[in-house]
Amino acid sequence: MECCPYCKKPQTGLVLQVKGYQYSECDNCDLLYQNPQPDVAALEQFYAGYKAVKSREGCGYLDETTLSRFQTEKKLSISELGLDPALFAGKKLLDVGCANGAFLDLAGRYGADAMGIDVSAELIAEAKSRGLNCSVATIDEVRGSFDIICLWDVLEHICNPGDFLQQVSDKLNPGGILFIQTPRYGRIARLFGAEWRYLLPVEHVILYSVEAIMKILKDFGLVSKEWISFGSGCTTGVVGGVYKNVFDKLAKETKNGDTLVIYAVKER
Ligand SMILES: [Zn+2]
Asked: How far is the CA of 28 from the centre of ligand 1 (A)?
C-alpha cells in the first residue's frame, strides 16, 4: 500500500477494487488514487499504443466527424464558466495533452497564439498534419511562459500532481488563466463505487473532488474563480435516449456532474 501521491499521508479512506487494480481514497485530500501507482514502464507502454486504445473506446475527438462535438462542448464550457471567447485573442496559450489538436484548432480560431504538447507521437503527427503548432514533450521540457494553460482531461493521468502543478504555475504569467477539465470524485462517483466510468486503470491515476482541486491549486498560487460540472455517469449506449438526457440534465442543474471544468487565475 502506498501513501497519498499528494499529501503523502497513509491511505485512510475507502478502497475500491477495479479490474485487478486498486483505488484508495485519501480522506485528507478528498481524492482517489490508484494504489500502487503504475510504474513508468507500464505507463510508457500504455501511451505508446494510446491512439488504438482510445479508438477502441470510440473516443469522440479522434473521429473527424465528431471532432466538432468536442469543440462545441468546449465552447459551451467556456460560456458556462462566464467567460467571453474574446479573452483568447492575442494570448500565448499552451495546451498540455493536446492529443490530435482539437482544442488547438479552436484556440487558433479564437485568435490565440497556441501551441500544444502531448506524449503520444501518433496523435502529435496527426495534429501536425493539420498544420497545428505542437510537439511530443512533457511540461518540464517546455520553455517560455504563457497567458493561458489548458489541462483538458490531463490531471487524472498525472502521477505526481505536486511537481506537475508547480511546473504549470511557473509557466503561467501573473494574472494568467488555467483551465482544467477532469473527472470529478463526488456524489455520483461515490454512488457508482467501483463501477464509476472514470475508474480506468492504468491511465487514470488520480481522481479529485472539487474541494481537493481548489485546495491543491491554491498551494501553487492558483485561485479558483468558477467551476461547472456535467455528466450523470451514464455512458451512451448503456443508458439510452430520454433517460440519459434527463439524468445528464439533472446532474448539470444540481451541480453534481461527474466531469468538472474549472478555471483559476494565477495570483499577481
Ligand atoms: Zn492526500
From this structure: 5
Which 3 state secondary structure label does DSSP give 184? strand
Residue 75: C-alpha distances to residues 82, 83, 114, 116, 183 (Å) = 11, 10, 16, 18, 18
Q: What is the pLDDT of residue 17?
A: 96
Fold type of domain 68-189+207-266: Rossmann fold (3.40.50)
Whole-angstrom Cα distance, residue 262 to residue 205? 19
Ligand 1 center from residue 36 Cα (angstroms): 14
Distance 209 CA to ligand 1 centre (A): 12
pLDDT at 250: 94
Distance of CA 91 from the midpoint of ligand 1 (Å): 34
Query: Measured between alpha carbons, how far is residue 194 from residues 8, 17, 107, 185, 243 in Å?
Result: 23, 6, 36, 12, 22
Residues of the chain with pLDDT below 50 are none
Domain range summary for the chain, segments of one domain joined by +: 68-189+207-266
pLDDT of 15-45, one tens digit each? 999 999 999 999 999 999 999 998 888 888 8
